[in-house]
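Hi all, posting the design record for the shared folder.

TITLE: backbone redesign
STEP: 1 of 1
STRUCTURE INPUT:
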């Protein structure tokens, strides 16, 4: 029986030398694979080499198929057409954001400016209307303040009415007492004057 049939995967000294050359960069794996190999020593070894080669090719095909599937699933992200559209949208968004920031800065500068030093340009033929509008605004503010005072005092109106009614009742009671006192004083006066007249006679 042939020794290569017993140990088909033993490493020969030539194979060890070639692997050292490949690992040190003297040769590349493609150069080694491109050389014609001597015929196999046995049919079993040849079959094993064929299986390994076919498995390697099958793995390469599977890897290419997986890469193609990945490329297909990510086509909307990696394709230059879609990338250009998204880049344009991103540029538009960035320019819009820059405009918003500039407008915010202008608005902040306007709000930080004191109001006393600002003058509104009014044309000469519109001065009369500006004065009238100021008067109307002042009248509106005054009427608004009055109405607000009325609205504020409205919840206390019921309490004020009860206090007023109780005050009126007290005043009427005092008036009644005053009338009774005046009638008693008049009676005493008449009695006193009658006594004086009787004593003089």
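Okay, here is what came back for every position:
SEQUENCE:
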């Amino acid at each position: 029986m042939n020794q290569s049939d017993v140990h088909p995967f033993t490493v020969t000294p030539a194979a060890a030398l070639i692997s050292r050359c490949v690992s040190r960069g003297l040769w590349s794996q493609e150069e080694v694979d491109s050389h014609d190999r001597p015929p196999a020593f046995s049919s079993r070894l040849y079959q094993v080499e064929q299986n390994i080669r076919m498995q390697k090719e099958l793995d390469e095909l599977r890897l290419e198929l997986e890469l193609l599937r990945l490329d297909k699933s990510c086509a909307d992200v990696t394709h230059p057409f879609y990338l250009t559209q998204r880049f344009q949208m991103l540029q538009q968004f960035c320019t819009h954001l820059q405009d918003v920031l500039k407008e915010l800065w202008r608005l902040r500068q306007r709000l930080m400016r004191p109001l006393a030093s600002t003058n509104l340009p009014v044309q000469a033929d519109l001065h009369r209307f500006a004065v009238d509008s100021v008067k109307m605004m002042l009248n509106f503010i005054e009427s608004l303040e009055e109405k607000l005072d009325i609205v504020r005092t409205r919840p206390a109106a019921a309490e004020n009415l009860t206090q007023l009614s109780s005050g009126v009742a007290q005043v009427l009671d005092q008036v009644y007492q005053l009338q009774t006192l005046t009638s008693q004083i008049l009676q005493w006066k008449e009695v006193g004057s009658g006594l004086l007249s009787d004593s003089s006679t």
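COMMENT: Residues 83 and 89 are 10 Å apart (CA to CA).
Let me know if anyone wants the other runs.
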